């Protein structure tokens, strides 16, 4: 090669190197970022194999001065990169061709990924729930449950070995929620041992698995909708039967003691209500409510399993108000309303003191929210139910429950209505004699008689109505007259003389008011009897008349006869005066009292022999004779 040829020689390697430098100097484009790793590696390998370190001479520097030619992109089909050899290298070994990924291939992969996301899942494409799909879900669930059990037994100390199976089991439980839309298929679950399998997972070491099962059972035992078909009701009954057979109440109550829905040692009470444990407790209480609604007899089973102790512990916890505390009060009210043994057990667990402590907060302060007001009302309901057990009256008296209720009546807060109901239950019956005498001793007459003279306005939608309020007050005065000893009764009689017999005037006003209600009820019952082909029984008629105002009217007339017979003569004269002003007949009062006496005790009618009449009946009939002879 002469000097001229040498000067005109343009090696290809220099041109290739210049093009690569220009490409590296430009910012990467959007498409180049997608395949930068693949193209970069290919180009790096091309540079290392095609260029010889010995060829970095003056020819390379001169070639760099030549203006670069425009870069022509490769054709769409895949190409092979051939690495040129240095002109002085002669015939070297051919370089292995390296395929380079193309940009259209990468874009096509992105499109395929997006298309996969848009495709419906198997659950979405499965269609409506039927027997075949149900069995398929159960089979998948059983396999994943057994797999998790085997791995946990095989690798008890290595969670990494069974973690994936636990996630699969959790997903399988979530898939079972689809069954809840078809309660008519529930009878198929029992032969496949589904209740047994689900309840076995409630005791799973992973509380997330237990929480998922509780959520599923709570949803499956809740029938939603205004109209529930007969098949759905039968399906729910079959499911509940299967759960009860597996001792569901004892299992979920035991699991409640394991769950901690109060946060870590109560450190953050505000956020404790949103923890997974709190949601699991909420679902457990919801499941209990559904079970007790279907099987009221399970209340005793729940109490014997330790439910009452847990509920009292939950109410006693010094945390801010949360939904689980409200739910606990609702379940406690359900448990004690229909079970005498549960009322007794709650008293033995010091439940009366717990209720009084929780209610004392509302003595001078109203609940801040509607949910907290509902909690307060539930606590009053529980206390009223517990006072039906005679042994709890003594605990209520020792716990100064009368003093608390009396203060609530004086404070005129929202708790006043509940306190009035509790007083009515505490003083009712012969078992309330001690409470009656104590109530007079703590100056309770100063509190109750202002409520008798003037009925206060209703507090909100959940407050007592005018009729309910009057009924409770009249009942309290009635039992005070029946149960008080001589000294306390004299103080009670003196109240009817105050302010020119103000209480007697109010007593007669209520008598005429409730007499009109009873007469209106009688007219309605007569019309109903004429329209119906089947006549109502005497007991049904009497019960409807009691609900129509006869019950309160009987108590009012009893109080009237009692104060006239045992009080000073001025009371009798006032009563007669009020009757004459309204042109009322004594015969009406006589009929009301005779009907009242006929339903006292176990005797069916006042026409029975005198030795069959109770002492109370004799006393009332004597008052009636004296009243007629006035």
TrEMBL record:
Subcellular location, record wording: Nucleus
Pfam families hit by this protein: CTNNBL
UniProt keywords, alphabetically: Coiled coil, Nucleus, Phosphoprotein, Repeat
InterPro entries: ARM-like (IPR011989), ARM-type_fold (IPR016024), CTNNBL1 (IPR039678), CTNNBL1_N (IPR013180)
Location of the region described as Disordered in the Swiss-Prot/TrEMBL record: 1-104
Biased composition (Pro residues): 67-78
Entry's transmembrane regions: none
GO cellular component: spliceosomal complex
Protein's GO biological process: gene expression
Biased composition (Polar residues): 28-39
Limits of the Beta-catenin-like protein 1 N-terminal domain: 107-214
UniProt biased composition (Low complexity): 53-66
Subunit relationships: Component of the PRP19-CDC5L splicing complex composed of a core complex comprising a homotetramer of PRPF19, CDC5L, PLRG1 and BCAS2, and at least three less stably associated proteins CTNNBL1, CWC15 and HSPA8. Interacts directly with CWC15 and CDC5L in the complex. Interacts with AICDA; the interaction is important for the antibody diversification activity of AICDA. Interacts with PRPF31 (via its NLS). Interacts (via its N-terminal NLS) with KPNA1 and KPNA2.
Protein function: Component of the PRP19-CDC5L complex that forms an integral part of the spliceosome and is required for activating pre-mRNA splicing. Participates in AID/AICDA-mediated somatic hypermutation (SHM) and class-switch recombination (CSR), 2 processes resulting in the production of high-affinity, mutated isotype-switched antibodies.
Name of the protein in its database record: Beta-catenin-like protein 1
